[in-house]
Design goal:
homodimer, 196 residues, alpha/beta, Rossmann fold, six-stranded mixed β-sheet, two-stranded antiparallel sheet, 5 helices, 28% helix, globular, xanthine phosphoribosyltransferase activity (chains A, B), glycosyltransferase (chains A, B), PRTase-like (chains A, B), transferase (chains A, B)
């Protein structure tokens, strides 16, 4: 997605060989117009798949997921990292290992929002090792729903997540795929054809 | 806002005299079309105020704030409850006391996103005791920005927050104002005139 790549080049910062900081428009400050275009792009790529729900992870997944939900006209559910006081019964939980923080955390969704007739699009802001996306897919499958695919705003294609998810049979659509962040330089994977 | 009141009556649950559960469309599952209408309503109410930025709090504030930001064409910044590994320098922090959880938590925003020319609309999902809104206003004012007003999706008008914020001189616009939740019944404040 050209608009997104342009934004990443203009405002993203390669903090290290593995960390891309995009707090200017995605992770802390949010650019609503860009999110709207991202939502439209996800909707276009998964059009005709019969998506009935979108599942994402708080907090940075919410804006792109809600914009996609607006275009596809389906509800969005965000998995919580922390248990809520008023959301306790019937939680479906999975574990996410964070390589960055070196810790395992539970994420959960109230089971009542998922049923076996649903066909779910998973959306997240980043794909690196694939642990968050796998945990979201795990939750969806625990409720006998089917996963229509995984939509990612920014994939760090030099890490294993994309390969891992594809090997497990998931269709992954990443709107920007980073080839490398070495020498504080952001390079994209040559995207002549869309990733199917 | 009639559409919102209707949704609250249809899908909200009065869990106790003080707790309203709206996880069906706002706090866990999100209704993107309703969020879009909420965004338009906030934009209409604060039109002409010269808003340059919206500040909200993760996670449930993000969807309504981003929709308002889309209509007003301004960036949205969400305050974080937990410090990020890649967002460390120049944080502006304030404290929120939660009466429900009986604990005090820091919330923070990277100072670089706020400057003294900004005129900020604060948006949050709920207004109860006003502690979260006050902490957001405190952060905004620490950076010498001005607060244009506070937009709330659901105000529990039987609690002190609305009064407290008005006394401090803030313009508060609540899209739905709950009068009472007693006997598992949701009653709204009679809203013949809009709250100015």
């Amino acid at each position: 997605m050209e608009l997104l790549q342009k934004k990443i080049l203009e405002e993203g910062i390669a903090l290290s060989d593995t960390v891309l900081k995009v707090d200017n428009f995605l992770n802390h400050q949010i650019d609503p117009k860009l999110m709207n275009e991202i939502g439209k792009e996800f909707a276009a790529r998964f059009k005709g798949e019969g998506i009935t729900k979108i599942v994402t992870l708080e907090s940075s997944g919410i804006a792109p997921a809600v914009m996609a939900g607006l275009v596809l006209n389906v509800p969005v559910i965000f998995a919580r990292k922390k248990k809520s006081l008023t959301l306790t019964e019937g939680l479906i939980t999975s574990q996410v290992y964070s390589y960055t923080k070196q810790e395992t955390n539970d994420i959960s969704i109230a089971g009542k929002f998922l049923n076996d007739k649903d066909h779910v699009l998973i959306i997240d802001d980043f794909l690196a090792n694939g642990q968050a996306a796998l945990a979201l897919a795990d939750i969806v499958q625990k409720t006998n729903e089917s996963v229509a695919g995984i939509g990612i705003v920014i994939e760090k294609a030099f890490q294993d997540g994309g390969k891992l998810l594809s090997e497990k049979g998931y269709r992954v659509e990443s709107l920007a795929r980073i080839q490398s962040l070495t020498n504080q330089t952001i390079e994209f994977v040559n995207q002549k054809t869309s990733v199917k």
